[in-house]
Design goal:
Distance between the termini: 49 Å
Shape: globular
Strand order of the largest sheet: 1-2
Number of strands: 2
Strand content: under 5%
Length: 276
């Protein structure tokens, strides 16, 4: 009996490895680059110690240290993580969400949004709330703010096609599901940033509802840049405006097959604070 189960187990492991490898090979360009930057940043946190350079202190989002000369922190903090566990957990949670977003909206749109409003708006919300409302100065880092931002967008999209799910006799709005995840993450990972996750989620709701979609780059500009630079021909795994699967940003697909219901929840991790 044991001899018969071992090959089956080995086949299952081989099959899963092959699927994982195939998935990784199909990742679009910006998703690959983002994961690579996160990994390289973690390596820098280790190497930087020998150079007397604390990468976490340099790039974390620290409310009291945000000024004209340190606005770079708004774009650096999502790539910096507290430890290897934090790094791996956020990569697992963030990669499938980012991959789906890039496939649906294109590489240039992803670059413009994640280095623009997807970083600055939730980051500034966090800084404003910490400094002027809570009068605190809690540093944060990690890509989990982006995780909850994308979950918020997914929740709104799901709500438009499937408004409720039923528990016992109660109808629960599907858009509220990420809020439960924010609370659960704060309870299970006390060192995570509840405010940071909430800021990302609120921005995701705003984009999902269409209130902030004007911040997405216009399609004519994307086509102009792609044509002038021949990005599709030069860059492997690049997703062009004409290749994207979701249509214009913020617009629901017309076919039922394109509008997949459900929100991917696996691997959601906490946006770790700087310190214990």
């Amino acid at each position: 009996m044991a001899a018969q189960t071992l090959p089956a187990s080995g086949a299952a492991v081989t099959f899963n490895t092959q699927r994982t490898r195939a998935y990784l090979l199909k990742l679009p360009l910006f998703t690959r680059a983002t994961v690579l930057i996160i990994v390289l940043t973690w390596v820098l946190t280790l190497v930087g110690k020998s150079w007397n350079w604390d990468v976490k202190t340099w790039g974390a989002l620290i409310p009291d240290e945000i000024g004209i000369a340190t606005l770079y922190r708004i774009n650096t903090f999502p790539f910096i993580h507290l430890n290897v566990f934090h790094t791996i957990l956020n990569i697992i949670a963030f990669t499938p969400l980012l991959e789906r977003f890039e496939q649906e909206h294109g590489t240039l749109t992803a670059v413009a949004l994640f280095f623009g409003p997807f970083a600055t708006i939730p980051g500034l919300i966090y800084v404003f709330t910490e400094r002027f409302i809570l009068h605190a100065n809690t540093p944060v880092m990690g890509a989990s703010m982006w995780v909850f931002l994308l979950l918020g967008m997914e929740a709104i999209r799901t709500y438009k096609t499937n408004p409720y799910f039923t528990i016992s006799t109660y109808n629960i709005p599907t858009w509220i599901t990420p809020l439960f995840l924010v609370v659960a993450t704060a309870a299970l990972l006390p060192s995570s940033s509840f405010l940071g996750h909430l800021a990302g989620l609120l921005v995701g709701y705003g984009f999902g509802l269409g209130y902030l979609k004007f911040l997405a780059p216009p399609e004519w500009a994307l086509r102009f840049i792609e044509g002038k630079l021949n990005l599709l021909g030069r860059l492997p795994h690049y997703v062009s405006v004409d290749q994207k699967t979701f249509g214009r940003f913020g617009v629901l697909p017309q076919s039922a097959s394109s509008a997949e219901a459900g929100i991917p929840f696996a691997g959601v991790s906490g946006g770790q604070r700087l310190g214990p």
